[in-house]
Amino acid sequence: MNAKRIGLSAVVVLLLLFLFIYPLDAYVSKPGGAYDLEPIVEVAGGDENDVGTFSLMTISIGKATPFSYVASKFSDRMKILPIYKVRREGENDKEYNIRQKKLMSDSQFNAITVAFERVGIPVDITYDGVFVVRVLTGGAADGKLEVGDKIRKIDGVQLTEPGQLAAMISAKGLGDKVKMTVDRDSEQKDIELVLSAIPNQEGRVGLGVEFQEDRELSTNPKVNIHTAEIGGPSAGLMFTLQIMNQLMDEDITKGYNIAGTGEMLADGTVGRIGGADFKVIAADREGIEIFFAPDDYLSEEIRKANPGIMTNYEEALKMGKKIGTKMKIVPVRTVDDALTYLRELPEK
Fold this sequence. Notes:
Pdz3 Domain; 6-stranded mixed β-sheet; 6-stranded antiparallel β-sheet; 32% helix; EC 3.4.21.53; serine protease; Lon_Prtase; Ribosomal_Su5_D2-typ_SF
């Protein structure tokens, strides 16, 4: 009898482990939290006598388990995401995290430049090498370069301007050797590779990488943004507003607790992001009073090709109605839309 009980208990334990721990080839997303930006965004000598708050919103994403997969079918607060919507093909944990941090870094860059431009303070932008975004399997750089490498030199020549890397590589041919100096994990490394055909690009020869030309930003006053483990581009709009609030003497929050989401593009446009609906749930839970949501433009062609697709604002508004929030959900296409709304907002 005892042996049967032990055996039954073991089966139950194994079943529970399978249901709650076994990882599926998919992800589950949930509402995250709200983070007050006052301790995160630091503008040297900036105005800190503000009553209201600007907050960034997050969603939680983790590997789906059999339990969470089934539970998501019965809950508005869980959503299953196919793996291709979260990770690129072949992308490992390190590469995924580097990409998310890079998206966050670019979001901060645009937030700072847009905020300073709107306030009328110039910034200094300089070229800062070439950032490796992706290494193609089977390409010349496969096993040589890594995602996150910063290319500084080609054949001993320092990269100092946009287009220089592409021009130097295009002047070479199949089988030519390339020596490069890269920054990797706070160290400088010399790497040699042989140019080969670019995978899935018939007739083209090159490094076999996707890259982004990097820039370094210098401002006066200096801006530091402490984001710890938060990744992705979706805090851009809120970073912009928080930076402006510290650069200006007035409190543009008007005393309200304000949150929102949206990537900040270089021209001040607020870009579409994922998880707007779950961020509304989190904002409502955290007592946010006003929520900015990207009112991204969707053409008729896009809507016909993707039945049921909604703008971030439409997603947010739908979820707000579903949960019965009293929070005001505001559509914005540019940072100027948010600023106009705040200017017309009465003091609390």
